[in-house]
Amino acid sequence: MEQRIIEIGESFTKELNIVKNSKDLENIRIKFLGRNGLLSQLFEDFKSLPKEEKPKFGQTLNVLKNDLQNNFDIKLNEVSASEKSEKSFIDFTLPGKTKSKGSKHILIQTLDEIKNIFKGLGFSVATGPELESDYNNFEALNFPADHPARDMQDTFFVNPDFLLRTHTSPVQIRTMQKYAPPIRIIIPGKVYRNEAVSMKSYCLFHQVEGLYVDKDVTFAELKGTLVSFAKQLYGNDIQYRFRASFFPFTEPSAEMDIWWQPSGKEGRWLEILGCGMVDPNVLKNVGIDPEVYSGYAFGMGVERMAMRKYGINDIRNYFDNDKRFLEQF
Ligand code: PHE
User: Fold this and answer.
1) What is the pLDDT, as a whole number, of residue 19?
2) Which pLDDT value is given to residue 265?
3) How far apart, in whole angstroms, are the C-alpha atoms of residue 149 and residue 297?
4) Ligand 1 proximity of 297 Cβ (cutoff 6 Å)
5) According to the model, what pLDDT value does residue 43 have?
6) Does any ligand 1 atom lie closer than 6 A to the CB of residue 210?
7) Which residue, judged by its Cα, is nearest atom 10 of ligand 1?
8) Does 217 lie in the same domain as 314?
9) Same domain, 274 and 308
């Protein structure tokens, strides 16, 4: 018995000295201090000793037990402290985390570009609310109640008299009600349409409206302005065409197309804007005499303009907020 007590004590010390990590330490705990470990075996054997030997070995066994437990606890502290500091070790050679800086959304970049071009052509910027009256959005723009032309724009109505504006044209009305000609403005802003979301259409998009009202404004000036604009945005070599069209608030009306040639695919005409001479009825509605003044107006979709410029083919990309898309611009 005595011999075994000494041996166990010695081998415990030896093994404890070469412990490297908490796993080694756990193995030692199981081997010596565990429920079926060497120490409890000794206590088991102790039970069958002759009565006279018990006091002597009882004492030695208790000393051994305390020793092992104390030394074990000391080692445990050491090991867990060093493992903790290993974890918090800072490797200064690792590359840092880069913080991504915010940047302007491609639509805002395009809007800025469009605004700057028109500012250079003598236009100033006006804005208006996105929640509009039926009167400003339709009625005053010569869409009579129940006229089928209203179906051209699927509308989100808030109540029978108010809606989310379907175009920026109501700001024409607001501006002409407030200011006398000459008026030369562009109106950038969000518009809403109750359309099924697809590659080509979204419930929300951006427009830039233009309005010029003065004496003797002509269709030739309108064309000249729009061609100059398109060349500045897309380059001098673009191909464009004007097609006759219809809008209740302009007469005559046209649409401007530009040629879109995606690389490796078939090219096609892409409609970029609607335009025309301000309808005399509209001028009358805001109290401007159509016998004295004339004007032109145009409206373009910013998403479309950017699609053509940057080769984006799905309108939903603008609104998904996917960094992989946004970071390309
Ligand atoms: N408001 C028209 C639309 O959204 C565009 C337009 C504006 C057409 C001004 C002519 C003149 O479709």
Assistant:
1) 83
2) 86
3) 18
4) yes
5) 84
6) no
7) 275
8) yes
9) yes
What pLDDT, in 10s, does the model give residues 76-90? 888 888 877 777 778
Q: How high is the pLDDT of residue 85?
A: 77
Query: Do 319 and 174 reside in the same domain of the chain?
Result: yes
Give all strands of the β-sheet with 268-278 in edge-to-edge order.
Answer: 124-125, 183-192, 204-214, 294-301, 268-278, 250-260, 240-247
Q: Which domain holds residue 191?
A: 106-326
Instruction: Quote the number of domains for the chain.
Output: 2
Residue of 151, 166, 249 with the most ligand 1 atoms within 8 Å of its CB, for mutation? 249
Distance 228 CA to ligand 1 centre (A): 19
Q: What are the tens digits of pLDDT across the range 34-44? A: 898 888 888 88
Q: DSSP string of 283-301?
A: HHHTT--TTT-EEEEEEEE
Q: Which residues of the chain have pLDDT under 70?
A: none
Question: What pLDDT sits at residue 144?
Answer: 82
273 CA to centre of ligand 1 in angstroms: 7
Please tell me if the CB atom of residue 167 comes closer than 6 angstroms to any atom of ligand 1: yes
Residue 164: phi and psi, rounded to 5, are -85, 125
